[in-house]
Design brief:
Number of helices: 10
Number of strands: 9
Strand order of the largest sheet: 5-4-3-6-7-9-8
Largest sheet: 7 strands, mixed
Helix content: 25-40%
Strand content: 15-25%
Length: 234
């Protein structure tokens, strides 16, 4: 699978975090121009039903990773869980700034292989001492997530249905005293569900032109911290 990742991606720094090189699917790649779901019939594509969403550096993930690199002290010495890690950029950034442990979590096994490949490129060794990977679905499993100091969520609030699952989960994590940072350009799962009522905006980043073109015209991406309301704390 590593060979397939390498043959279908290019090593890119054309994003908000050029400090980190990532194997990404860009317009230079043939697979970029295939329709979603091509893996069902195309033997050269990645295993169906998992389309290679990990191959795109989504705007929320870019903002979250930029925030980690810009605010090292918040993550240094902390244990970090990166949920829906995709290409692994936020996990790599957390290790780069001195997090004591990082777990990259994604239900797509290929995403985890891409994450380890990207970790190697950036000098992060792919073993449990440097970067742990998990493929089980941790969303909703509060017991597994509460052992971490910080939970990162990039681009997972992509619609209202997933928001309905994520919101109660992060509420439970917040009650357990965990810090939760969320990166998103302003999708419906954030704007139309009431989640913003619990968000504190930490950073807003202008997206590079190439990222805007790939993401339906979103021009900025934000990083929020989730916090319980006074009523929820009681």
């Amino acid at each position: 699978m590593v060979g397939k990742i390498l043959s279908n991606t290019v090593l890119s720094r054309q994003h908000l975090t050029p400090e980190i090189a990532l194997h990404l699917i860009t317009p230079q790649c043939d697979i970029y121009h295939r329709p979603v779901g091509a893996g069902e019939t195309d033997t050269n594509a990645f295993p169906f039903p998992m389309d290679p969403f990990w191959g795109f550096y989504w705007p929320g993930g870019q903002a979250l990773t930029r925030f980690i690199l810009d605010t090292e002290s918040l993550f240094r010495g902390k244990s970090v869980l990166d949920v829906g890690c995709g290409c692994g950029a936020s996990s790599i950034a957390a290790k780069m700034v001195g997090a004591c442990s990082v777990t990259a979590n994604d239900i797509d096994q290929v995403a985890l292989q891409a994450t380890l490949l990207n970790a190697k490129v950036n000098g992060i060794v792919d073993n449990a001492d440097e970067l742990d990977v998990r493929s089980d679905n941790l969303i909703g499993n509060g017991a597994s997530a509460t052992r971490y100091d910080i939970v990162l969520i990039g681009d997972l609030f992509y619609d209202t249905e997933i928001a309905a699952v994520l919101h109660p989960w992060i509420q439970r994590l917040a009650r357990a005293g965990k810090k939760i940072y969320i990166g998103d350009p302003g999708r419906h799962g954030i704007t139309d569900t009431g989640v913003l009522n619990n968000m504190i905006l930490h950073a807003r980043y202008e997206l590079p032109d190439n990222v805007c073109l790939e993401n339906n015209g979103f021009s900025h991406a934000n990083v929020w911290q989730y916090q319980l309301s006074t009523e929820e704390k009681d």
